[in-house]
């Protein structure tokens, strides 16, 4: 069966798409006109094969959808009428309680609020991440060691169990320059967490930016991959970037559209085929000036490698039958 194609709402954040001059202008306009923001996003998706969306930070967040449509159920109906559905929601680190501060009741309450909304709109995955590293050379130094990861695992267990009551799975995103970035980070965190409550959302681009092998990571953690972000990278990034409010914009030049970078898409498709999240291909394109063209191109790459993977699999089955 063919997977459904999805994208993060960040795809639609490029100022040029809105005929505005800055990201701040987009946020301001969308805050004042949430209904018009969502109508254009949905209208644009109708020109592609993408039928799933991942909510994210404002303006493409749950609060914006509630302001535009009045309720989660109304948002779901509006999407459904256009053949669309929410797949997941991404928790940005600036939009939620800081896990390094350790206020567990606040962290759990925030996750439960998001999970309740997801359940109402028919989605089952809450994507989050671990806190960012500090800039290399900062004093006192911050180490991503076993003690730190154990604290993060304890919080993840509490959050994962809480959202599971809503029928939602908690999946961790492998963000560049975060404490879940290097292959070693991912392996350590997954080893310390219970597979019944903690899942993975590997991002092919971010893993590659850290000098890792996205395909190897995906294969090692295939049984716990609830969802994956399909995204390409031009090459490994400077691991010593200044980690502040500008870090995400610093990362942008290292990201590229599917099929134009270094990710092994054939290997990635093969690894994804054995995961619980295999039925969704989430194409991530940060701030595309032309979302329709970018999504069509990304979908074409995904369809090509998936078709090749299926063809090879079918050939192997035929050979076995003989």
Distance between the termini: 24 Å
Largest sheet: 8 strands, parallel
Q: How many DSSP helices?
A: 12
Taking all residues together, what is the mean pLDDT? 94
Gyration radius, rounded: 19 Å
Show unreliable segments. Answer: 314-322
What's the arrangement of strands in the largest beta sheet? 6-5-4-3-2-1-10-7
Describe the overall structure:
The protein has 322 residues and is an alpha/beta fold. It has helices spanning 23-32, 34-45, 62-69, 72-81, 104-121, 146-164, 183-192, 204-209, 214-220, 247-251, 265-272, 291-321; strands at 4-8, 50-55, 85-90, 125-128, 169-173, 199-201, 229-230, 232-233, 255-256, 280-283. The strands form 2 sheets. It has an 8-stranded parallel beta sheet with strand order 6-5-4-3-2-1-10-7. It has a two-stranded antiparallel sheet with strand order 8-9. Helix 5 (104-121) crosses helix 6 and helix 9 (214-220) packs parallel to helix 11 (265-272). The protein is globular, with a radius of gyration of 19 Å.
Summary, kept brief:
Mean pLDDT is 94; it is low at 314-322.
Task: Pick out its properties.
322 residues, alpha/beta, eight-stranded parallel sheet, two-stranded antiparallel sheet, 12 helices, 10 strands, globular, disordered C terminus
Helix-strand blueprint:
Elements: E1 4-8, H1 23-32, H2 34-45, E2 50-55, H3 62-69, H4 72-81, E3 85-90, H5 104-121, E4 125-128, H6 146-164, E5 169-173, H7 183-192, E6 199-201, H8 204-209, H9 214-220, E7 229-230, E8 232-233, H10 247-251, E9 255-256, H11 265-272, E10 280-283, H12 291-321
Parallel strand pairs: 1-2, 1-10, 2-3, 3-4, 4-5, 5-6, 7-10
Antiparallel strand pairs: 8-9
Helix pairs in contact: 1-2, 2-3, 3-4, 4-5, 5-6, 9-11, 11-12
């Amino acid at each position: 069966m063919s997977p459904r194609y999805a994208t993060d709402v960040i795809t639609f954040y490029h100022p040029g798409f809105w005929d505005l001059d800055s990201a701040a202008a987009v946020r301001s306009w969308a805050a004042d006109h949430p209904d018009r923001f969502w109508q254009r996003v949905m209208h644009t998706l109708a020109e592609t094969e993408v039928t799933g969306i991942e909510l994210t930070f404002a303006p493409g967040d749950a609060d914006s959808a509630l302001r535009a449509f009045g309720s989660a159920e109304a948002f779901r109906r509006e999407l459904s009428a256009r053949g669309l559905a929410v797949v997941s929601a991404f928790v940005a680190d600036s939009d939620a309680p800081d896990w390094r501060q350790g206020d567990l009741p606040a962290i759990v309450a925030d996750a439960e609020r998001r999970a309740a909304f997801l359940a109402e709109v028919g989605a089952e995955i809450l994507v989050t991440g671990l806190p960012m590293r500090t800039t290399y050379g900062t004093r006192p130094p911050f180490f991503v060691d076993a003690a730190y990861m154990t604290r993060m695992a304890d919080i993840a267990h509490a959050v994962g169990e809480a959202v599971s009551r809503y029928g939602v799975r908690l999946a961790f995103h492998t963000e560049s320059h975060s404490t879940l970035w290097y292959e070693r980070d991912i392996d350590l965190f997954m080893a310390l967490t219970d597979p019944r409550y903690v899942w993975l959302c590997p991002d092919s681009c971010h893993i590659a930016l850290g000098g890792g092998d996205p395909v190897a990571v995906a294969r090692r953690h295939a049984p716990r991959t609830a969802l994956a972000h399909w995204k390409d990278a031009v090459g490994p990034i400077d691991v010593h970037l200044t980690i502040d409010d500008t870090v995400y914009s610093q990362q942008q030049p290292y990201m590229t559209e599917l099929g134009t970078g270094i990710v092994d898409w054939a290997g990635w498709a093969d690894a994804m085929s054995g995961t619980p999240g295999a039925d969704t291909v989430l194409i991530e394109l940060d701030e595309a000036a032309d979302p329709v063209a970018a999504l069509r191109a990304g979908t074409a790459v995904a369809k090509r490698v998936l078709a090749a993977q299926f063809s090879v699999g079918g050939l192997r089955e035929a050979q076995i039958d003989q």
